[in-house]
């Protein structure tokens, strides 16, 4: 999914810039909570990737209808993760992150549009809730 790819590119740019940029005599990644920023970004990207793989497996094994909940979850998770990681990368780049010298601002804009194009998150969350409740109550 392109959102995961964009998040991965932003993550790499964030790490590279954090190692190159210095403040108070140290690399930026070694200051404050930047280790957490990097760790959380990696964790979120992997979560989105694993959810995508789970949905693909379910689609292959059971068909699209039985993977509807996972597909809706991906439509919420992947673009949100991408926006969050890109935003963190912009922050690590400072003012340059929103300049035309780096692709991050354009990537963020594209991912934000993707969130809207796939439908509002609330619609997908409602689908997930409806499907999961139906699964639970059909077992009774």
UniProtKB/TrEMBL annotation:
Ranges in a coiled coil: none
Molecular function per GO: acyl-CoA dehydrogenase activity
Keywords for the protein's UniProt record, in alphabetical order: Flavoprotein, Oxidoreductase
UniProt cross-references to InterPro entries, sorted A to Z: Acyl-CoA_dehydrogenase, AcylCo_DH-like_C, AcylCo_DH/oxidase_C
Annotated source species: uncultured marine bacterium MedDCM-OCT-S05-C259
Organism placement in taxonomy: Bacteria, environmental samples
Highest taxon of source: Bacteria
Domain Acyl-CoA dehydrogenase/oxidase C-terminal stretches: 1-130
Keyword Oxidoreductase: yes
Biological process annotations from GO: fatty acid beta-oxidation using acyl-CoA dehydrogenase
GO cellular component, one term: cytoplasm
Keyword Flavoprotein: yes
Protein name: Acyl-CoA dehydrogenase/oxidase C-terminal domain-containing protein
SUPFAM superfamilies documented for this protein: Acyl-CoA dehydrogenase C-terminal domain-like
């Amino acid at each position: 999914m392109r959102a995961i790819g964009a998040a991965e590119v932003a993550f790499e740019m964030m790490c590279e810039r954090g190692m190159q940029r210095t403040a108070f005599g140290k690399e930026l990644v070694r200051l404050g909570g930047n280790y957490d920023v990097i760790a959380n970004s990696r964790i979120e990207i992997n979560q989105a990737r694993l959810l995508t793989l789970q949905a693909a497996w379910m689609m292959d094994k059971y068909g699209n209808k039985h993977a509807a909940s996972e597909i809706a979850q991906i439509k919420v998770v992947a673009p949100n993760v991408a926006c969050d990681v890109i935003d963190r990368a912009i922050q690590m780049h400072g003012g340059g992150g929103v300049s035309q010298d780096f692709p991050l601002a354009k990537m963020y804009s594209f991912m934000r549009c993707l969130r809207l194009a796939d439908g509002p998150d609330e619609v997908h969350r409602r689908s997930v809730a409806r499907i999961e409740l139906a699964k639970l109550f059909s077992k009774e």
